[in-house]
Specification:
Strand order of the largest sheet of chain A: 8-11-6-1-14-13
Radius of gyration of chain B: 21 Å
Largest interface: A-B, 23 and 27 residues
Largest sheet of chain B: 5 strands, parallel
Distance between the termini of chain B: 27 Å
Mean pLDDT of chain A: 76
Shape of chain B: globular
Oligomer: heterodimer
Distance between the termini of chain A: 63 Å
Shape of chain A: elongated
Number of helices of chain B: 13
Low-confidence stretches of chain B: none
Helix content of chain A: 40-55%
Mean pLDDT of chain B: 89
Structural class of chain B: alpha/beta
Helix content of chain B: 40-55%
Chain lengths: 802, 325
């Protein structure tokens, strides 16, 4: 018990300035390392990484300061790191703050109406159950991801990647903080951070200025830790370490670091790219597995966007001009009819195949619209087979398309076109990836195409084993997509186990936004999707589809933007689909390894694409909508962050009160002599805080004398002498009681009953207050000293001027 | 129980009054030596004897006389020389011609306060006669046993510097003294005050009795009633055992030492108004009580250390117990 008190005392004593400098340098270095790494990452967001870094570093550093053994530090760090990674990667933060605000609400209810407290804990238990489920899902995803990696079929799962990255950063930061203080070895401390940074950057040949920063900071760190080590050794042999030495060492270290960094930047023979090249040369060419590893960690290896032919179609913007007619007006004019051979038998009566007549697909998002990557043109002749005409889970359909009114060159077809009964040109991004087809002018055409026939259950079984051409094109996000968009994606999908469920969650979320054609022109400096998701929150199909593609990609599911016409109305009599101008549409297609490209409909107002007789997943009511009505007036006025802080402080307060109550009960239950011994120990703990030495052979009276004289000394630095005198008196009184209780035979003791405990209860708050005052005074004194130096220099300068 | 507590407290009060009066009185004669006077009174109240190691002229005789006058007890001074015989200490039977029988003429041992000056100059035979009387409280002369006075305290002195022509007390005999102290020179201010006091005459000529010395046996009994809990006894034993196992000491304190420390700590507690012993009491009495009962290792003697230093060192390192800890 005394040992714990003394340990806490060591922590509360202000750490030496050198240790704080070390902490600062470590923080700078780790930030630089992480910044360099995140510049090539698509997955985890910078905020949670940075926070994890800071907290991990502080925890490692604190554990070393209070001299915890290595195994215990490792255990604590790992547990906390796992908890933090789960919290941030899994979007549990929101749930936790909800739980806290519910708790707060319940407490306020109790306090305002104690007679009739309608305590409804069901919402709290519900939230807790959900959090538990989410945790399970996230762990499952990480496990699956790791499994896939081991089986050499790496996949990119942003949540798992975020979890892994946050954990890595945490461990590296905690290691750095702990080793620098406990083992006094700077190089060992920063080694993992440097390895992480250099390793990641070498995977992508990415030069980063942060490397120079890390070099400089490492040198400074070496100097500080060396200095600390030397001081420690001098202390051990009881030699006084010259105080100026620290400053001299610091100055020299800064100069040397700057010189070396400049030299390394200037001299070409030791330039950083060379190091990178050397490192990656050593690692050999990027093997398939490695690039897969890079992909699965979300490291972008090929950030290219190739411009292309089909120029007029690839104009960035929301592609409207490719459609027959123009503008998003709701016109009922029929623009084409589509007849499908044997439609009724294919559709099996009940199951409605999702048939959207697609013309073009886009893979590149520009922030304000869509573009396609480079395409290669190839001519085809009548009925020449363009793509495979059969595939598992697909069925071939023949569609007869009659445009009404204008002639067209575009081909509209559902699914993947296989053959057209005209000749024309097809544009390919890659042998498997078709951009679109143009034929010579024709009044009608027949197109056969392959459409996926899958139900929800089958889609749910799909994994994330995407071919290269898919993951390269359809998972990439431009680097200027705002963080909150990516965060929203993670938030929506973190607790969904399968890719299909994730996509469905996004789809359902977007469908809650009201549909309108009346939207202002998007601002030029803001990302379109960001504008739609957070500011506009309404719009028409182009917005929905763009948002869904981006969100799906951010969630690690390949998606593309599709343009064309929606199904239209099926006229039973004429057995054909009547497609009107108003059906001009854009939507999303999601890639599944077996089912291929499957269309999804995020636009509110359009009927959802039904796939099977199996019921659709329930809308997850716990999804936070930006417009979610606040349940309590309190949360309306407080921003969420403050609520969290408030909740945290309240829980600390509650814990403190509970501990104090338990402690009191414990003290009261002790017999008087045991209570005396206990209080004596606590007073000794307090004395240790004030650096009052304690030999084994000191009697209580002797101790209280030295304690009182120390209090007197301290009162000289500014704590009120009256207050100190009162404390001294109380201490002497309580000590007298302690001595009497301990050394007087119990039969002869006055029946005082718990006087010591009562006295101690009062005294300990006074002692706490005293210590706070003393701390505050010493900090103030320190500040004054620093300020005095500055002003002295200033006044000296002024004098020189005169 | 309550009456017990009350009577206990009353008894303590009585002892305190007694000692305070004596000390106040003696301080009229001896300036600035209150701790020494306390120690002498403690020895008196514990039925023990005192060894005073001091250089000449520090006021040993004056002190003893002052105490004797204050308490109204009989005081005798015995100057030990090498030719002092045991009978000079105990007394002798003389044939009375007129009565035709042997008469016993009591020696200095039959006083209450006996100042045996320079005891290390007496021969071992005489030393042991005195020490025997101290130990047994009676003397046998010619087959007849005569009890000594109650109270009886011997204040033996020796000069720590002089070794020429002395018979140093052996270890076993040192052990019989309850306490060893040294008075020392007064401080400059006190010496000045002393000179001023003795301007016209010696203050001891005007000293009066202030307490009844015959009550001392009763007070001695009261001292024994002071409570010491088990931890205190344990602490005393730990200290004494530490002396026995200390590697700087060839010989540690004996069980007589533990008992002495116990008793004197009780007396000290009473002198400071408590009817129970606290560790501070034990620490205060430890040096005076134990230092003379121990023998240093030869290497330590060469180093200039004394047994008192060893005791002080032990006081720092032996743990002070709390109840039930």
């Amino acid at each position: 018990m005394a040992a714990n008190g003394l340990k806490i005392a060591t922590l509360m004593r202000v750490p030496k300035p050198e240790k704080l400098v070390t902490l600062l340098l470590l923080f700078v270095l780790l930030t630089a390392a992480t910044a360099g790494v995140t510049s090539v990452l698509t997955g985890p967001n910078w905020g949670s990484l940075w926070r994890g870094l800071l907290i991990g570093l502080l925890i490692g550093w604190s554990l070393a300061i209070i001299r915890q053994p290595a195994w215990r530090s490792a255990l604590i760090t790992t547990l906390l790191g796992a908890a933090y990674a789960l919290l941030y990667a899994g979007g549990l933060r929101q749930k936790i703050s909800d739980i806290l605000s519910e708790l707060f609400f319940v407490l306020s209810r109790i306090s305002t109406s104690p007679q009739d407290p309608k305590i409804d804990l069901s919402s709290i238990t519900h939230l807790l159950a959900e959090s538990y489920n989410t945790t399970g899902v996230i762990i499952g995803r990480v496990y699956k991801w790791a499994n896939a990696l081991v089986l050499a079929e790496p996949t990119f799962d942003p949540v798992a990647a975020a979890f892994v990255w946050i954990s890595l950063v945490w461990i590296v930061a905690a290691w750095a903080g702990w080793v620098a203080i406990a083992r006094r070895n700077a190089l060992l401390a920063v080694l993992p951070a440097l390895l992480l940074s250099v390793g990641t950057l070498s995977l992508v040949h990415h030069e980063s200025f942060t490397i120079y920063l890390m070099l400089g900071v490492t040198l400074l760190l070496l100097a500080t830790v060396q200095h600390d080590r030397r001081e420690h050794r001098w202390d051990e042999i009881d030699a006084a370490y010259p105080p100026r030495k620290g400053k001299q060492v610091g100055n020299a270290a800064v100069i040397i670091s700057v010189v070396i960094v400049l030299l390394s930047a200037i001299m070409s023979s030791i330039s950083i790219p060379r190091i990178m090249e050397w490192v990656s040369a050593r690692r050999g060419p990027l093997a398939q597995g490695e690039s897969g590893l890079a992909d699965s960690l979300g490291i972008v290896t090929d950030v290219t966007a190739t411009p292309d032919i089909f120029a007029d179609l690839r104009r960035p913007g929301l592609p409207r001009d490719q459609l027959i007619g123009s503008g998003p007006e709701l016109s009922k004019r029929i623009v084409m009819t589509v007849e499908i051979e044997d439609y009724l038998s294919i559709s099996k009566g009940e199951q409605i195949l999702p048939l959207y007549w697609r013309s073009f697909t886009y893979d590149n998002y520009t922030g304000h619209g869509w573009q396609t990557s480079d395409t290669v043109l190839s001519e085809f002749s009548t009925n020449q087979r363009l793509q495979p005409d059969q595939a598992p889970q697909h069925t071939l359909i023949e569609q007869n398309v009659h445009p009404v009114g204008k002639e067209t060159r575009n081909i509209y077809a559902a699914g993947e076109p296989v053959a057209i009964n005209h000749s024309g040109e097809a544009a390919w991004r890659s042998p498997e990836d078709l951009f679109g087809i143009l034929i010579e002018r024709a009044a009608s055409y027949e197109a056969s195409s392959l459409i996926p026939v899958v139900d929800e259950q089958t889609l749910r079984t799909e994994d994330q084993n995407y071919p290269d051409w898919v993951s390269r094109r359809f998972l990439s996000l431009p680097s200027d997509v705002p963080e909150r968009v990516k965060e929203l994606a993670l938030q929506l999908t973190a607790s969904e186990p399968t890719p299909y469920d994730r996509v469905r969650a996004i789809e359902l979320y977007l469908r809650t936004f009201p549909y309108t054609l009346d939207v202002p022109y998007p601002p030029l400096d803001q990302d379109l999707v960001d504008y739609f998701l957070f500011d506009l929150r309404k719009g028409y199909c182009d917005y929905y589809a763009s948002a869904m593609v981006i969100l799906a990609r951010a969630a690690g599911v390949p998606a593309r933007f599709a343009v064309g016409y929606a199904s239209g109305i099926y006229n039973v009599k004429s057995d054909r689909f009547l497609v009107s101008e108003a059906d001009a549409h854009s939507w999303v297609e999601i890639y599944f390894p077996n089912a291929g490209w499957v269309p999804f409909e995020p636009t509110a107002g359009r009927p959802p694409l039904e796939r099977s007789i199996v019921s659709t997943p329930e809308f997850d009511s716990s999804l936070t909508l930006p417009e979610a009505k606040p349940t309590y007036n309190l949360t309306k006025s407080l921003p969420k962050g403050w609520l969290f802080v408030l909740g945290f402080m309240t829980s600390i307060g509650i814990l403190g009160a509970v501990w104090a109550a338990f402690d009191e009960i414990r003290l009261h239950r002790l017999t008087e002599p045991a209570a005396a011994a206990e209080v004596y120990q606590r007073i000794r703990g307090f004395g240790a805080l004030l650096a009052v030495t304690f030999d084994p052979g000191i009697t209580p009276y002797e101790y209280v004398d030295s304690l009182n004289s120390r209090l007197q000394e301290i009162s000289l630095i500014g704590v009120s002498a009256e207050f100190v005198a009162r404390i001294s008196e109380e201490l002497s009184t309580i000590m007298q009681r302690i001595v009497e209780t301990s050394y007087r035979p119990s039969e002869y003791q006055a029946k005082s009953n718990k006087v010591i405990v009562y006295q101690w209860k009062v005294l300990r708050w006074q002692l706490g207050l005293f210590w706070l005052l003393k701390y505050y005074q010493s900090v103030r004194k320190h500040l004054w000293r620093v300020l005095a130096k500055v002003t002295i220099n200033k006044s000296a300068a002024v004098e020189l001027e005169d | 129980m309550a009456s017990d507590v009350e009577s206990g407290e009353k008894a303590i009060e009585e002892v305190r009054e007694f000692t305070d009066s004596v000390i106040a009185n003696v301080e009229k004669v001896i300036v600035g030596k209150r701790p020494t006077i306390e120690l002498i009174l403690i020895a008196l109240l514990c039925e023990g004897h005192l060894l005073i190691e001091d250089v000449p002229g520090t006021g040993k005789t004056m002190l003893a006389r002052a105490i004797a006058i204050s308490t109204g007890l009989e005081f005798k001074r015995l100057q030990c020389t090498p030719d002092l015989l045991p009978n000079d200490v105990t007394g002798v039977s003389i044939f009375n011609q007129k009565k035709r029988e042997f008469e016993f003429r009591p020696g200095p041992a039959f006083s209450s306060i006996l100042l045996a000056d320079e005891i290390n100059r007496a021969t071992p035979r005489t030393q042991s006669a005195l020490l025997e009387a101290m130990g047994e409280g009676q003397v046998s002369v010619d087959g007849v046993t005569y009890p000594l006075a109650k109270p009886f305290i011997v204040l033996a002195t020796q000069n720590p510097i002089e070794f020429e022509g002395t018979f140093p007390l052996p270890e076993a005999q040192m052990d019989r003294f309850l306490l060893r102290l040294s008075i020392g020179y007064p401080g400059i201010a006190d010496e000045d005050k002393m000179m001023q006091m003795q301007q016209t005459g010696h203050p001891i000529e005007n000293l009066k009795q202030v307490v009844d010395g015959t009550r001392i046996p009763e007070l001695q009994h009261q001292i024994r009633r002071v409570h010491a809990v088990e931890n205190i006894r344990q602490y005393i034993l730990n200290l004494v055992h530490a002396t026995r196992s200390h590697n700087g000491l060839a010989l540690g304190a004996s069980p007589r030492g533990s008992l002495a420390l116990y008793r004197t700590a009780q007396a000290y507690a009473v002198l400071h108004g408590r009817d129970f012993v606290i560790p501070d009491d034990v620490k205060h009495m430890a040096v005076a009580c134990l230092a003379h009962r121990m023998v240093l290792n030869p290497e330590k003697i060469l180093g200039g250390e004394t047994t008192a230093d060893v005791v002080r060192e032990l006081l720092k390192s032996v743990e002070v117990p709390m109840t039930d800890a």
